[in-house]
Design brief:
It is found in: Membrane. The protein is mainly alpha-helical. It is about 70% helix and about 0% strand. Strands 1-2 form a two-stranded antiparallel ribbon.
Length: about 400
């Protein structure tokens, strides 16, 4: 083991540079977004800078713990996250007011709003990683039965927060939870003989639901109690011009991004009004003001981030760290794909922010906590002279 490596050399400077670029991009985009529409006079930028400072502190704390300590803490953190999600339902309206039909936030003066599901995503990554690691320690000889047992364990661990978040209701975050579960399952070592039939069945169910939404909506209304506005989101995604009452945000987003063309209209050059442009539709602002070049720059940043996270997973010798890295990659990648996809009509609109760029304290702190785990993996990584190069871990 190399004991001469200095802490300076073990610090993840590449990730620091990427986060700095995200910070500058976020500040520039939010500064522009708050100059339009109902945001005139608001100072989201100063608050975003404050949350970045807080997030940096979170990274500093999180990275100090190594993988063994996180294996011990994972269930306490998971339990704390579940407690917050349950308490949210019983909390009085003075601290957990229902807004836009959802009860997803705590409102604590003077700190502002706090969304526990953002932190639950990170706690879930730790819990799933810990469960897989412990399972393989207890069952070194894999069989179809032990793999199925692991799948059930992971399913139960995921189902509890997923159900609580769906009850809020928060479809966007629920989809992120599913994405985390899916990503970690793929590296868990569970045989494809289990994964393929189960995920194939899930895809078939999803396709069937989409068919019913388009052709037989009355069945879903009668038997599942699906609301009309929920159908509207699908209809607006497929044909926003025919459903302008539901496709308003999408039409505005497409108009903004399209009008930006190659180089954009310049900073503060936005002419298309988009509600919530500083949060869920921040990419539309970037597309309009900085054009195709600006949008490509942002997407390239995410590509470099995910590449770096993948490299971190491949460089570590600890399976637990690989599971954590995979969970973080799945979370970030799904956020980016869904958020940018919904602004260009590739995917239906859901309330998912763009990581590190959209305004929002809870979202940013949750993502910075996830980055703290990556910093910790790099910082505490040890290289052994005779370490095995086999990274399959049962795959």
């Amino acid at each position: 083991m190399d004991t001469t490596t200095k802490k300076y050399d073990r610090f993840d400077w590449t990730l620091t540079l990427l986060l700095l670029l995200f910070f500058l991009t976020s500040c520039l985009a939010i500064y522009s977004a708050q100059k339009t529409g109902q945001y005139i006079g608001q100072n989201f930028l100063s608050r975003q800078i404050f949350w970045y400072i807080v997030g940096s502190g979170i990274i500093a704390v999180v990275m100090m713990f190594d993988s063994e300590q996180y294996r011990k803490l994972s269930w306490y953190l998971y339990g704390f996250g579940i407690f917050l999600l349950i308490f949210l339902f019983f909390a009085p309206a003075s601290i957990a007011e229902e807004r836009n039909g959802a009860k997803s936030w705590f409102f604590i003066e003077p700190l502002g709003s706090f969304q526990p599901s953002e932190f639950m995503k990170v706690f879930l990554i730790l819990a799933l990683s810990s469960a897989i690691y412990a399972h393989h320690q207890n069952h070194p000889s894999r069989t179809l039965q032990t793999d199925f047992l692991l799948f059930v364990k992971l399913g139960v661990i995921t189902a509890l927060p997923l159900g609580l978040i769906l009850m809020q209701p928060d479809l966007g975050t629920s989809l992120v939870i599913i994405a985390i579960f899916t990503g970690i399952i793929l590296v868990s070592g569970i045989t494809w003989a289990i994964i393929l039939p189960l995920y194939g069945s899930g895809a078939a169910i999803g396709a069937s639901i989409l068919y019913l939404v388009i052709w037989k909506p009355e069945i879903l209304k009668e038997y599942l109690g699906v609301k009309t506005y929920q159908f509207g989101r699908i209809y607006a995604w497929l044909d926003p011009e025919s459903y302008p009452e539901y496709g308003y945000h999408l039409l505005k987003s497409l108009s903004a991004i399209g009008s930006g063309m190659l180089t954009g209209k310049g900073i503060n050059g936005s002419e298309v009004y988009i509600p919530e442009s500083h949060t869920d539709f921040i990419f539309s602002v970037i597309g309009e003001e900085f054009g195709f070049i600006g949008g490509s720059f942002v997407i390239s940043l995410y590509f470099l981030l995910i590449y770096h996270l993948t490299k971190t997973a491949l460089d570590t010798n600890d399976p637990f760290n690989i599971y954590i890295s995979t969970g973080v990659i799945s979370m970030i990648a799904f956020h980016v794909f869904q958020n940018i996809g919904m602004t260009i009509q590739l995917l239906p609109i859901t309330g998912i922010p763009l990581p590190f760029i959209s305004y929002g304290g809870s979202s940013l702190m949750g993502n910075m906590m996830a980055m703290g785990l990556i910093y910790g993996i790099r910082f505490h990584h040890k290289t052994y002279m005779f370490a095995s190069k086999d990274r399959s871990f049962g795959l």
